[in-house]
Amino acid sequence: MEAYDPPAAHALRFALLGPLRAWHGNTELALGSPQQRAVLTLLLLRRGQAVSLADLVDGVWDADPPTGAVPVLRTYVSRLRGLLEPDREPGSPPRTVVSLGDGYALRGTGTVTSDLDDFQDHVRRAERHRAAGDHGAAAPLLRTALDLWRGTALAGVPGPYAQAERTRLAALRLDAQQSWLRAELALGHHAAVVPDLLALRDAHPLREDVCELLMLALYRGGRQAEALEVYATARRTLVDELGIEPGPSLRALHARVLAGESPDTGAQTRTAAARAHPPRPARTTRPSQLPSDLPTFTGRRGELDQIARLLPTEGQPDAAVIALVDGMAGAGKTTLAVHWAHRVADRFPDGSLFVNLRGHDRDGSVLDPSDALTAFLVALGTAAHAVPDGLDAQAALYRSVLADRRVLIVLDNARDTEQVRPLLPGTPGCLTVVTSRNRLSGLVAGQGAHPLTLGPPTAAEAREMLARRLGAARVEAEPAAADDIVALCARLPLTLAVVAARAAHHPEFRLTDIAAELKESHGSLDAFTGGEVGTDVRAVFSWSYQALPPATADLFRRLSLHPGPDIGTAAASALAGVPRGRARALLTELTGASLLTERDPGRFVFHDLLRAYAAEAAEAEDTDGERGQALLRMYDHYLHTAHHAASALDPFRQMLPPPPATTDSAPRRFTDRADATAWLRAERYVLRAVVGHAAAHGHDDHAWRTAYALDVYFNRLGFWQDLMEINGVALDAARSAGHLTGQAYALCGLGFAHAQLGHADRALAYQEDALALFEETGDTPGQAHAHRALAYRANKTGAYDVALAHFARVGELYRAGHDVSGEAGVLNQVAWTYILMGEHERALERCERGIALYHGIGEAYGEASTRDTLGYALHHLGRDREAIGCFEASAALFREIGDHYLEADVLRHLGASCRAVGDLDAARTAWRRALTLLAEAGHPEADDMRASLRELGAGG
Fold first, then answer.
1. Residue 247, phi-psi category: left (phi > 0), alpha (psi -120 to 50), beta (remainder)
2. How many helices (H) and strands (E) does the chain have?
3. Are 448 and 394 within 8 A, CB to CB?
4. Which residue in 268, 380, 775, 838 is deepest, having the highest Cβ count within 10 Å?
């Protein structure tokens, strides 16, 4: 397809759904060498986000870059700039490929378009029509989207990143093809789509959903025999290639076709079920947190039937249902719970929640139910800063949020009843599934939980598990050896998976030899020894571990040193002391050997038994010095990355610099606030654990400095409990190290957290102690920090004169230190204090001075905040037309920064001023925009905005 119509003479248009091509206006561009195309591909598909030099090297060359890779990349970028901006004046800054941090980004929203953008736009629009039942509108949109493809996406572009994207885009194309075919079938075009379905089936013979569509088209077209032959062919292929039978949906359709029933029976049943459980409009957000189902799940039929009886066949249960699955580690409790949860998830239209309670974590880092409640409440739409302090208050809010909702909740790996009880809903309609190694008799007696003790599967089921992973033909060729493997693994699903992974990676190995190796293994994990080789988990783990290449085995041991619930690629790189690309390859080897699980892209977790085994191996094989160096690299990595993230969040803050790293820990750097926030969000629980872990292992300096670096993020996001916990550890660590400045900052953090939580007296004591230490050490920025914290506490308690006195001292300190950003920030806070006092005229002058200072240094965030304060003061003075200008400027700045919550907050103020001057249309526009932003974020204040809009519509 060659239909490229650029929207403007100087617009850039890219074609990715085939060979990579580009046009500047109507002129096609010569994109250069394959590697230069790979660089362009990375920039295009990151959609305006910065791509670091390290990511570019990995994406183009992976773990084998050429000598001088970075200068080569810079050359490619220079050439691309000249190619994409031929009219740029010499010496003028580039506008399309811009430098950001240590990398580059492709910018140009509105002037840079692609066929991929068009494809995704058509698919999204079609999905909206399809969801509304308008297949006649959906089908042509999908056909247009598919016609944009000109072969394999990114054809000819080298590198691992392009290959991964080709796979992803091919999956999107297949999904769109199937959606189009379903829409055509819904319109009754059965015969017309058979050729397309035949071609799709031939291209994807293992896709049961494609075979199902082909059977449906043939049968509806009166070709029953051919439909049955499609099933027979599909079954033979699945059995021969994978050793598995067709899934339940394809088998059910086969049965209906064989019996001559209406092929729509299943759809009608699903429609009836939907009428029986009609979805209600979402109040804020619909979480969908279930981990993916295991594709090779098999067996456990008796257990599944037993759990299924807990729910009525139709309608909803009269009480909240609690299913408790207990049993030994490795028995498959989580796998069973997740599999059944997926089977019944459609009966809970308000979403699903999942949490690993870490009840049997090796280091005893059991998840506090308060942390689990906070995560659940945020997932259900509660703002982080609105989550109350204290377990009882959190549990009460959680039960209120769940009232009249139908939510599926999976509480995995619980330690005891006390950990679970606060997480249970209080009203009928929800289903809770709990897994634990312990028999939680208190949950059965007190909450009426229905227990199911999960032992090993039957020998037949265990053998079926092996066949699903290795193929039926291989198992049937050596039945005695397969039975030996099942027995030697004690029919334990976890150990079976490890052995099967080894056998699958070595198809040339006989099962007889694998069984013999298992018999020769010795040793045991002490907690899981039954006295025989068949129940010796360590035998299986050690055999798999010893087969690893040395570097992979090293990383396996190092990972056991990590204190967090999961680990990212960059931190694993630091622990192992290898480049990030190499660490990624090693992690892939570990996941492929079933010794590690990739829970989310780039986030890895150990199974409990495997972590225990890795820790034993580290203790036995590594010296104290080797383990100590690995920990130091990890602490360095987290400290310096957290410092970089804090600097990106607040670039004008005078940060206390950490000492230079003594190791090659490869800390991450960030190009903007969004990038830093994403990392902090992913690492939140890890960072909290690292602070305590560093202190416990004698690295006091790392402990308090990491806590200090987290202050900005935890403050802005309202994680007051986290702030209190890490600063408590930091205070002890700084005292142990004899570092007065560290003690002062920890005290300041504790005081601020207590002030936010309403503990005014404790906050005052901590903040006064912090100020005294800052004065003792002569730390001027620290003194300013402490005075601002004391002023904030004073405002919270209504002591406005005290607040103004502290702010006056802060202003003097900032002016003496030539800290313009700090001085401007204090002017804004003084203005807000005057507003709290009702002295709006006095607030105006402070705002105007603050805006001028912020504008002079280019600090858009502070300027936006202060313009909002100025508008708020003008609104209360009745000068709403002036206020409108302030709010519009503030909202535009927050929009440019990307802070959607604060933009929505300013738009609320804007709407109020528009309403005050009688411009109801403008008020409605502002509030609708605010509602859109709040609803997209799942913020509970969206309901208040809806109420304001209803009131505006009713009475003006």
1. beta
2. 43, 15
3. no
4. 380
CB atoms within 10 A of CB 270: 12
From the list 40, 32, 34, 2, the residue with the least C-alpha distance to 18 is: 2
Distance of CA 519 to the CA centre of its chain: 42
How is residue 359 written in tokens?
A: 């009840």
CB distance 919 to 927 below 8 Å? no
Is residue 534 over pLDDT 70?
A: no
pLDDT in tens, 611-653: 878 988 999 999 999 999 999 999 999 999 999 998 887 887 7
CA separation for the pair 231, 730 (Å, rounded): 65
> Mind listing the pLDDT tens digit for each residue in 64-85?
777 777 778 888 888 888 888 8
d(CA 134, CA 126): 9
Read off the pLDDT of residues 225-263 as tens digits, 9 standing for 90 and up.
898 999 999 888 888 877 777 877 788 888 888 877 766
Contact between residue 7 and residue 109 where contact means Cβ atoms under 8 Å apart:
no
CA distance 168 to 489: 36
Residue 678 CB: number of other CB atoms within 10 A?
13
Taking the CB of residue 581, how many other CB atoms lie within 10 A of it?
Answer: 21
* DSSP state string for 849-908: HHHHHHHHHT-HHHHHHHHHHHHHHHHHTT-HHHHHHHHHHHHHHHHHHT-HHHHHHHHH
Tokens for 391? 């377990």
Specify the range with the lowest mean pLDDT, choosing from 122-131, 551-560, 716-725: 716-725
Q: Are 331 and 454 in contact (CB under 8 A)?
A: yes
Asked if 177 and 146 touch (Cβ cutoff 8 Å), the reply is yes
Backbone angles phi, psi at 65, to 5 degrees: -75, 155
∠ Cα 576 577 580 (to 5°): 85
Predicted confidence (pLDDT) per residue in 692-702, tens digit: 999 999 999 99
Distance CA 837, CA 795 (A): 10
Residue 156 above 60 pLDDT? Answer: yes
CA pair distance 672, 860, nearest whole angstrom: 13
Q: Are 890 and 867 in contact (CB under 8 A)?
A: yes
Helix (H) or strand (E) holding 843: helix 840-857
**E strands within 394-544?**
408-414, 431-436, 450-453
